[in-house]
Amino acid sequence: MAMIIQTVDGVVSNRFDINESGLGFGRTPDNQVQIDDLAVSSQHARIYSEQDDTAKAIFMIEDLDSTNGTFVNENKITKQQLRHNDSIRVGWNVFIFIDENDQQLEQTSKIKKSWIPGVYYTKDK
Questions:
Q1: pLDDT digits (tens, 9 = 90+) for 64-120
Q2: Mean pLDDT over residues 38-55, rounded?
Q3: DSSP state of 123
Q4: Are strands 93-99 and 79-82 parallel, antiparallel or unpaired?
Q5: Which of 10, 47, 94, 120 fits a 20 to 30 Å CA distance from 62?
Q6: Exposed, middle or buried by CB within 10 Å (0-12, 13-18, 19+), for 112?
Q7: Cβ–Cβ contacts within 10 Å for residue 8, how many?
Q8: How many angstroms separate the CA atoms of 91 and 5, rounded?
Q9: Residue (of 122, 123, 27) closest to 67 by Cα position
Q10: Would you say 60 and 47 are in contact if contact means Cβ atoms under 8 Å apart?
Q11: Pairwise CA distance, residues 44 & 58, whole Å
């Protein structure tokens, strides 16, 4: 399942699931993510899914010729593939893209016992 979460000062304030029809950002009520901010265009951006060569769902974000642009990881974009944990900025609003199918878990560190009694350590590869 893919979603975006809206953060305000690092705290999650909203969550929006991305379904088959996609997710629209803008000031008008016909957007799934309606943003009451004059820095946001009426039809600002959209997220939609496509299939890659292996038939895996990938998520794209596209700026809809907005006045102030759409930013992914603080880079202005016109169209870009989203990756898990990407930061999206629309106007002054920040969202985080979450793709539960794309999360890469870090490998668990192995704890080793040193020759000193009671002292343990991890050795990074």
A1: 999 999 999 999 999 999 999 999 999 999 999 998 776 555 566 777 778 888 777
A2: 91
A3: -
A4: unpaired
A5: 10
A6: exposed
A7: 10
A8: 15
A9: 27
A10: yes
A11: 21
The token pair that represents 107 in the structure block: 């490998």
Assigned token pair, 84: 């898990």
Query: How long a stretch of residues is the chain?
Result: 125
pTM of this structure: 0.77
Residue type, 72: V
Kind of pairing, strands 111-113 and 93-99?
Answer: unpaired
CB 1 within 8 A of CB 100: yes
- What's the CA gap between 57 and 18, in Å, rounded? 12
Residue 48, strand partner residues: 60
